[in-house]
Design a protein that fits this description.
172 residues, Alpha-Beta Plaits, five-stranded antiparallel β-sheet, 17% helix
């Protein structure tokens, strides 16, 4: 898809049909739309075997990087498996800050052990300062004598948690 000359490209959350995330992202990519589906690998057990399977980190959601013109939005909405763009006001998709998507992409790329975590409005905002995830920002939470870095995606009202060493972060 050719980017619009007048409007910048932003990230938007897309709601998909249940269990259609992988098909929807494949179709979006085939249309040339920059899309991102964060996944986590989990060990799945059956009676006769075990296998590592990729699951969507946020079931029913993926992200697209498009300009906010009607042509770009319509091209996403026409993709089979896509239900809608997430909006606060009807017809006004809510852009996701680039830093939230970039941090999420870095967590996924590093194959960090991620767990779904409830969305947080309050808490200590921190940045990792050591190791391969240096620069990733989130909220520091203490749970059962462990420190977690919670990365929230505001539009989805979801987050992911990563166990970290509290000394590896700085206050923002």
């Amino acid at each position: 898809m050719e980017p619009s000359n007048t409007l910048p490209q932003r990230w938007y959350a897309v709601h998909t049909k249940s269990r259609h995330e992988f098909q929807a992202i494949e179709r979006l990519n085939q249309k040339g739309i920059n899309a991102f589906l964060p996944t986590v690998e989990r060990l799945r057990k059956w009676k006769d075997r075990k296998k590592i399977i990729a699951f969507p980190l946020f079931p029913g959601y993926l992200f697209v990087n498009i300009s906010k013109d009607s042509q770009s939005m319509l091209s996403v909405l026409k993709v089979k498996g896509v239900v809608r763009l997430l909006c606060t006001l009807p017809g006004e998709p809510d852009p996701i800050p680039d830093e939230q998507i970039l941090s999420l992409q870095r967590l996924i790329e590093n194959k960090a052990a991620l767990d779904h975590y409830p969305y947080l409005n309050e808490g200590q905002k921190v940045r990792i300062i050591k190791g391969p995830l240096s620069g990733v920002e989130g909220i520091l939470v203490e749970k059962l004598d462990k420190h977690l870095l919670v990365l929230s995606v505001d539009v989805l009202r979801h987050g992911v948690a990563l166990t970290i060493n509290a000394s590896d972060v700085e206050k923002i």
